[in-house]
Amino acid sequence: MDELLEQFLIEGRELVAQAGKDLSALARDPRDAAAIDSAFRAIHTLKGSFGVFALAPAERLLHAAEDMLDRARRDAGVLDGGTVAALVACLDQTDRWIDDMERSGALPDDAERVSTASTALLKPAASPAKAGAEPSRPAEWVEALKTREADLIAQAGAALVVFRYAPDAECFFRGEDPLVVAEAVPGLLALAVLPTGGDWPGAEELEPFSCFSVLEGLSTSSLEEVQAAFRMQPDQVQLARIEPTAAEKAPGEARGDATLRVDAARLDALADGLGDLIVAINALAPLAAEAQQVDRALAARIRAAQAGIEGVTAKLHRNLAAVRMVPLEPVLRRLPRMAREIAETLGKRVSLSISGEGIEVDKQVADGLFEPLLHLLRNALDHGIESPDDRAAAGKPPEGAVSLSFRRDGDRITATLRDDGAGMDPGRIRQAAVARGLLAADAAAALSEAAALQLIFLPGFSTAGTVTEVSGRGVGMDAVRAAVEKLRGTIEIDSARAQGTAFHIHLPVNALTTRLLVVEVAGERYGVALDQVVETVRVDRAALLPVGTGLACVLRDRTVPVLDLAELLDAQAVQGDHAKLVVTRSRGEPVALRVDAFAERIDTVLRPPGGLLASARGVIGSALMGDGGVLLVLDLPELAA
Questions:
Q1: Measuring CA to CA, which residue among 212, 222, 250, 214 is closest to residue 162?
Q2: Hey, is 610 helix, strand or coil?
């Protein structure tokens, strides 16, 4: 791909994402001056990016949007729900054109027609302001402060908050100290004390018990935080948010040396090198044990060297992992547009809200998360959210609500997609599974409601009575689970009839290295990812009780089925007085796998299966051991299914 085009795609999508965020803010508050300014800058820059490639239809459409936002900067009253919706439609079309540029390097043949039609949507709001209306302009004190503190604003290189605090003349008699109040503003960058009337009073006019000063300042904190500092003087303070223009940015930022774009393949190569280094370090432990038999002093020096190398490697690992961390926001930027398009196709009204998108995860996790989320979103809109008439009959608002939220818990992240639709019926799911021959009737009846919901992830499962252009709830859900498990994640379902459904996806934040538990089975060693292990337990053999044709045991007051891992691997099981169990979750339910012994825990780079291993059931990859051997890493949930 041409380097200029590649840069255009990256920056264009970033600008679309920024403008989309600003328009969402304007949908809530059309008079949000900061959002208007930010959207104007993003669309202005986006227009220039299209101009580099002489893409006239896109330039004209963006110019019309730019004009609308420019009028809104002078008079926020020109924006209303309809004009913001028109701007969103313009941005969606621009986003589709960026996708076209990536696919073919050119706009589609109908770009002229689409541009004309889309520009027409902006014309009603583009009419001149009402006669006699005075356009609002930035306050003079803001412009004066920006001029006075231009150097500080340029050095900050980021959005700032300015304030003008005009204490009333009698404030001293209430025990207030305006200077103390202003100095308590968080993130205070500059503070100026100015005369109220423009000139300081002469000595003969000075009234020592009356306040005749105005305090103006600059803060790096948020608008809300600065406002909170003046919570006792709300009627005496004016606030505004300002951002540096391109000319005001710091020199280093203008040169672009604050951010370095690196090809992902180079980071992957570094990760592979780190993996080889970890394997080499793992080889030192057995070497030290061997040296112990010959020379204890030599063994001690080897262990000391190993500890030093491990410390440096751990630092390298942290730094490389930090470089690979990216916010989720760019990956999710297309979802709001797709939600609007799908809802329009289905004749439904749906709002999509996203929160926690600023959380950072490994790039591999971020990239792999988009497809399963998109599939879940399609299903939620198609068969989760009811039609407007059905919602009205159920006493719900005509507009359905879908939310996507992200939460980080230690080294794990949870993505939750929730809708307020019809919910899922476990009984109907059981019937569908039996009807399609996926499960015996007695086995389906024995399932708990949570386990019944997990049946939608079986290949070939569907409850859809009709086929739509979008999807059917359950169709292809096995692909969703496969995509999540490929990222070493799990997926859970909560659903209530007539109230809605929530899918919870649990994923590791860091995909650079994997923590493995080494187990022994029938004389062989295997690795299992610790994030698939609920717990490890050791019980008496007598605690394994026959249930049906298998075995089970009671763990934490719950009956858990027990499977022999050796039998699952077609090996000969080793019998003993005690049973060592690795407890995992399969289809949402706990399952215990019996092994012969627990060995060490190691950090290593997991290599995806290739060749014959790519089609092997229950294998998620391999890892190199310190002695040069290859350790197969098992997929416990798949083996236990």
A1: 222
A2: coil
Q: Are strands 514-521 and 597-604 parallel, antiparallel or unpaired?
A: antiparallel
List the single range of 7-11, 239-243, 264-268 with lowest mean pLDDT.
264-268
Contact yes or no for 502/494 (Cβ under 8 A): yes
What is the layout of strands, in order, in the sheet containing 237-242?
Answer: 188-195, 213-219, 160-165, 237-242
Which of 185-199, 260-274, 414-428, 497-511 is least confident?
260-274
CA pair distance 619, 152, nearest whole angstrom: 57
Residues in a beta bridge with 535: 583
Cα(102)–Cα(13) distance, integer angstroms:
11
What DSSP assignment string belongs to 355-403?
Answer: E-TT-EEEHHHHHHHHHHHHHHHHHIIIIISPPHHHHHHTT--SEEEEE
Separation between Cα atoms, residue 404 and residue 504, nearest integer Å? 10
Q: How far apart are CA 196 and CA 242, in angstroms?
A: 23
The residue assigned the tokens 């009028």 is 71
The closest alpha carbon to 189, from 228, 233, 235, 158, belongs to 158
For 571-614, the pLDDT digits (tens) are: 877 677 788 999 998 877 889 999 999 988 887 777 777 777 77
Answer for the pair 7, 50: CB distance below 8 angstroms, yes or no.
Answer: no
CA distances from 175 to 41, 168, 202, 216 (A): 45, 12, 25, 21
In this structure, what are the phi and psi dihedrals at residue 406, rounded to the nearest 5 degrees?
-130, 140
- Alpha carbons 172 and 564: distance in angstroms, whole number: 81
pLDDT-derived band at 475 (thresholds 50, 70, 90) equals very low
| Residue found by looking up tokens 């289809």 in the block | 587
Mapped to the 3 state alphabet, what secondary structure does 399-422 carry?
EEEEEEEEEEECCEEEEEEEECCC
pLDDT digits (tens, 9 = 90+) for 335-374: 888 898 899 889 999 999 999 988 989 888 888 898 899 9
What pTM was estimated for this model as a whole? Answer: 0.62
